[in-house]
Amino acid sequence: MQLEEFWTWLEMTPLAARIGESAWFPFLESMHVLSAMFVVGTVLMADLRLLGWSARRYSVTVITDEVVPWTWGAFVIAVVTGVGLLMPRASSYVANPAFLAKVVLLALALVNMLTLHFFALRTDRVRLQMTTGACSLLVWAGVVLAGRWIGHLS
Amino acid sequence: MLQETVVYLLSNVPGLPPIVQTVHLLGIAVIMSSVVLLDLRVLGLALPSQDVQELTRRVMPFVWWTLPVMLLSGLPFVVARPQRYFTNPIFGLKFALLLPGIALAALLHFNGIRKPDYWGTRLIAALSLLLWIGVVLAGRWIAYVDYLFPPEE
Question: Running DSSP on this structure, what letter comes out for residue A55?
């Protein structure tokens, strides 16, 4: 109950009203798409190396060290713009099955990334690296699909 | 006939529009990890230990394979509602940015292998970076044309 009040409160904030009633919404959405696709693109480059399909002349850690900071930078922009998009329609989005699927898939992406960072890379286990690379490809494609589907349900 | 079929499929196959749009979006992700990251590498901003010539050979084929996929995943929506797109100035802008973007991608593919350190290659990379970002933003703004050009009453 309290959580529902929070979403309603969020919709009522002056910032949410400002975004919802102006060109801020499409501006934030276009920045969200751009940064999110940069996240997925950089993740893709790392995944192809983890799978051993590309860039095999470089070690896995050379590729991840150079690519992942860009992923995080774009991810921060995607989250900030994503929160901005959520605010004006918070209570309808949190009840949207596609939005909930996206949150679950993002959580899975996080678990996969932690597995890679703390287990697969530390111990240089190639099989586990390949598995996390494959899971990453599938989960991030799912995040994009769920994200795109949100707008078709609201 | 074709238009009727496409409209029928898009409105009756459950989930078809978001699935086709996701293919288009994942194509953008491939563009980001190929030509855009190569642009950043040529400009000296990213991927310092990856060789420009090797990176060019590795990522540019992805661009050429992705462009037909982009065409195929974008076309159904244009076929279904041509008047929505052909009267839309942002749709025109997208293609006005896309065509030089593709031409510069071809130049970058050539120069990245032959003259990776040439100043002209860096100029191509900078313009290419701006154009591809512009293409993605214009693509999303097609749906929001009314914010920029309010329809007359």
Answer: -
Cross-chain Cβ contact B25/A41 below 8 Å: no
Q: CB–CB of A144/A84 below 8 Å?
A: no
Å from B73 to nearest chain A CA? 14
Eight-state DSSP code of residue A96: -
CA distance A31 to A37: 10
Reading chain B (153 residues) residue by residue, the pLDDT tens digits are 899 999 999 999 999 999 999 999 999 999 999 999 999 999 999 999 999 999 999 999 999 999 999 999 999 999 999 999 999 999 999 999 999 999 999 999 999 999 888 899 999 999 999 999 999 999 999 999 988 888 876
| Backbone torsions φ then ψ of A12, nearest 5 degrees | -85, -10
From chain B, pick out residues whose CB is under 8 angstroms from the CB of A30.
Answer: 136-137, 140-141, 144
Contact status, residue A63 vs residue A45, Cβ threshold 8 Å: yes
Q: Do B29 and A26 touch (CB under 8 A)?
A: no
How far apart CA B101 and CA B39 sit, in angstroms, is 12
ipTM: 0.93
pTM of the model: 0.94
Q: Among partner residues B26, B32, B58, which is closest to A55 by beta-carbon distance?
A: B58
